User: Fold this.
Amino acid sequence: MAGSVTDVNSSSAQSTGQATNYPALTVLVSVFFFWGFIAAGNSVFIPFCKHYFSLDQFQSQLIDFAFYLAYYMGALALFAFGAFGGNDPVAKMGYKKSIVFGLLFSALGAAAMIFAVEANAFTGMLLGLFIVALGFSLQQTADNPFAISLGDPATGAGRINLGGGINSFGTAIGPIVVAIALFGSTEAITDDKIASLGLDKVIILYSAVGLLFLSAAALFFFSKKVPAGISKEKTEKSQKAFYALIIMTILLIVMFAPVFQSYNKDVSNLAKDALLELETYRLGWLLGALAVVVISLLFIKSRASKNPKGWGAMQYPQLVLGMLAIFVYVGVEVAIVSNFGELLHKPAFGGYKASEVAPFISMYWGSLMIGRWTGSLAAFNLKNNTRKVLMIVVPLVAFGIVLGVNAVSQYDIKPLLYYILLVFVQIAAFAFTKNKPAKTLLTFGILCMAMMMIGIFTTGNIAVYAFMSGGLFCSIMWPAIFNLSLAGLGKYTTQGSAFLVMMILGGAVLPPMQGKIADYLQAGSNLEGFGIHMSYWLPVAAFAYLTFFAFYVNKLLKKQGIDYDGAV
Assistant:
């Protein structure tokens, strides 16, 4: 699930004095809410489905696989039209119509979810989520440039950050609402009773969500305050980039296919050694999928640097490395929390039932709201003293809102109270980095690595807080990566932004990979919870790359004559 994007062009654009279209902006930012609500709600849906359908950890992560794969496939399809047609299909159709069609797609996905739930079909639910996210892909492609066009370009970043704040609020309440829909109340339910629960409230939830999608689509379509947002600007052709992405996609299918096929076998009677061998086989193919992405992007970087023609925005090494950074960032942000429910289930980490993990997941996603609300202060023209005060007040208020949402929902918030200490760590980190993208990403990357390591080498509340803080310190990474990746791209900035959004694909690859690492390690161990606990070495490796990216790309930009110290 993506955060707000601070567009480097809009943040440095010359002021035109254009008045902001607030009625249109109000309608527009409501769409940001949907993205956060559904994406964060999936984090509760995952542990529920694991027990309801008797899945292993990898299978439960297919919820994220279906959801984030749709983002990639939708963005790839749009890029294909632009690569060969010479026109951005979203800009040609108009931002308004694109968002309307995206909302209708998502409504269709909600309907598919309802039919799947009635049929008690997990595969059907995955298809429903895929269609919902396919609509989100079209919406997100249109939303960010549309927000910039609704007023003075110089203040476009502020409008996008507003949308990001609304998105983050959706992530904070999504897990709570979905948990109540799944479990019927906030009271604890034993995991063995989950399979006997009815899914009537899930049908009600997605019926309501579907109606909201349709209502928002109608509001957009019939509103005279919302402009068409049509642009006839030609896009840069980049057939080589398209072919490279198609080859990467085919190779990913080849890597995932044997894993899915292996689940057609009955493994209930397998001996431990045979089960370990099977899990080794599955993990090998998944590691191959990760290698495909990494090697493909490094190959593109090498080829494009030698002959830029036909590569479009990919001729810039900071963009290609940034694509890998976005892939890793989205993947690790989602993987931490998607596997978090299973970790909390283990006795060493609280022994929480699946019906009791919602407050922790809400705080994880709420942590992103805390960080993004704080980071959005950079988009406003504030006096220095005012900014310093707000950098303390805003995150504390946001923390209070997350606690309040859980308290109103009648969840016990006592286990979350001491988390405020980590909020103060984030405040200090913000003050240290002074909104410089490279310094921000480097600092928060190191903090994330440190927190994951603390979580791996401890248990109990310390480990829970450490892993949960991944959301807190991840919160500002998305705009930092975007700014560093798009610096110096000039006329290729829009296309580069589309490539970065495409790499939300990481949310489809890393969460199931961490789930399979957990299955593999558990198959070879007699210690309960060993697999899921040690699977968090994957986030450590991911944050190590993001830290490297911050250091390396900053030096790379300086070699290009770009001393980029813009605000995050």
Observations:
- The chain has one domain: 8-559.
